[in-house]
Amino acid sequence: MTIKRITFVQEMLKFMGLEGRLHLEWISSAEAQKFARVVTDFTEKITHLGPSPIAGQTRSISMEPHENKRRKHEYHKAG
């Protein structure tokens, strides 16, 4: 089930222009060196990809429920 979900999210990220920003790898707690290598490699990959191409283009979602309700109302009112 996890692989199916990760694959779905990877496809969604690809559609959004954020390909390569999600990685799943099974690592045992006994594999400290592998963990360090995977994290280092992924960090380098993300650094190479640079900032999100959609940074600043999305509206933030407030953690306050009343703010999200107001925005939803404004969206439906405008549409």
Automatic annotation (TrEMBL):
Keywords: Iron, Iron-sulfur, Metal-binding, Oxidoreductase. One of its GO terms (molecular function) is oxidoreductase activity. The keyword Cytoplasm does not apply. It holds the Pfam family FlpD. Residues 68-79 have a biased composition (Basic residues). Residues 49-79 are annotated as: Disordered. It comes from the Bacteria. Residues 4-50 form the F420-non-reducing hydrogenase iron-sulfur subunit D domain. InterPro entries: MvhD/FlpD. This is Methyl-viologen-reducing hydrogenase, delta subunit. It comes from Desulfocicer vacuolatum DSM 3385.
